[in-house]
């Protein structure tokens, strides 16, 4: 079985026929047919139904196609690993917390891909703790997370690039003006207590002696903000200053706690990562665009 034959199978499915695949691959139709014949001989089964006007994948062919895609993806990834640090090429799998995916990550990726078009970027979403575990396990090349609330293994490193202050968000018609007053007298719209940012807020609430009212708990920072905007309660979230100022036009935005509490954003990666130069490029681009006052949030 050859990678070339598997790529031919994928091309036939993608472009709809042997003839179309041969044109895209720069092969003769006879060469395409021969590669598929070799696959069928090797597996001792037909993978195309040839009873109709044109061959179509049968159930065994569909099963093989699914596996072929995974094998080819992994093969391309292995090829990329050999030269990725010098050429910015090959498949790159990034982990990111939700808030960074909203902004500025799209701008950063576009900027890097415009300069390095051979970089194939995939993004996985999760909480910081989950993403850190995935980086350690080799399932992600690096991740954008909040500051770790655990002791990292010696093989891992976290590089902070931006600090966001925590604010209390509430509807403008709520009478109270202090964090304690707002949080004690209205339902608490809470960001996930299992998330590292959520743990930071819970610890500070206890230190400040603030007892919150039962409300709702959400695993999305953006959803938490939306709930407070809809007058469903009071939230505590971290925000860059320019976004806090924008939200203050339509709702109460009160600094949370004294001394101020900040959430740091940074890159989590292995110390010996082969993506060293790529990670540096993302780091500096994220640092620049996160501080920009013209980011577009939903």
UniProtKB/TrEMBL annotation:
For this record, an example GO cellular component is: cytosol
Which InterPro entries does the record match to this protein? Answer: HTH-type_LysR_regulators, LysR_HTH_N, LysR_subst-bd, WH-like_DNA-bd_sf, WH_DNA-bd_sf
- The keyword Cell inner membrane belongs to this UniProt entry's keyword annotation: no
Q: Keyword Transcription on this protein? A: yes
Q: Which UniProt keywords apply?
A: DNA-binding, Transcription, Transcription regulation
GO MF: DNA binding; DNA-binding transcription factor activity
**Domain named HTH lysR-type: residues:** 1-58
PANTHER family linked to this entry: HTH-TYPE TRANSCRIPTIONAL REGULATOR YBHD, NITROGEN ASSIMILATION TRANSCRIPTIONAL ACTIVATOR-RELATED
Q: Can you tell me which family this protein belongs to? A: Belongs to the LysR transcriptional regulatory family.
For this entry, the protein name equals: LysR family transcriptional regulator
């Amino acid at each position: 079985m050859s990678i070339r034959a598997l790529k031919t199978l994928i091309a036939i499915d993608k472009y709809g026929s042997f003839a179309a695949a041969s044109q895209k691959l720069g092969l003769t139709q006879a060469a395409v047919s021969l590669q598929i014949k070799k696959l069928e001989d090797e597996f001792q089964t037909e993978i195309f139904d040839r009873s109709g006007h044109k061959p179509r994948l049968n159930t065994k062919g569909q099963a093989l196609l699914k596996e072929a895609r995974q094998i080819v993806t992994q093969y391309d990834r292995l090829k990329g690993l050999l030269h990725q640090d010098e050429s910015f090429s090959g498949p790159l799998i990034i982990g990111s917390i939700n808030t960074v995916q909203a902004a500025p990550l799209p701008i950063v990726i576009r900027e890097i891909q415009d300069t390095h078009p051979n970089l194939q970027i995939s993004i996985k979403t999760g909480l910081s703790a989950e993403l850190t575990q995935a980086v350690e396990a080799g399932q992600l090349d690096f991740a954008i997370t909040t500051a770790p609330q655990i002791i990292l293994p010696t093989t891992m490193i976290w590089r902070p690039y931006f600090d966001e202050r925590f604010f209390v968000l509430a509807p403008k018609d709520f009478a109270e003006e202090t964090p304690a007053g707002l949080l004690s007298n209205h339902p608490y719209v809470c960001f996930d207590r299992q998330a590292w940012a959520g743990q930071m807020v819970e610890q500070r609430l206890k230190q400040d002696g603030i007892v919150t009212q039962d409300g709702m708990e959400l695993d999305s920072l953006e959803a938490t903000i939306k709930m407070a905007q809809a007058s469903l309660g009071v939230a505590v979230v971290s925000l860059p200053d320019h976004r806090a100022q924008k939200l203050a036009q339509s709702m109460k935005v009160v600094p949370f706690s004294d001394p101020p509490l900040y959430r740091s954003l940074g890159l989590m990666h292995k110390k010996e990562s082969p993506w060293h130069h790529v990670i540096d490029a993302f780091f500096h681009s994220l640092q620049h665009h996160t501080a920009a006052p013209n980011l577009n949030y939903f």
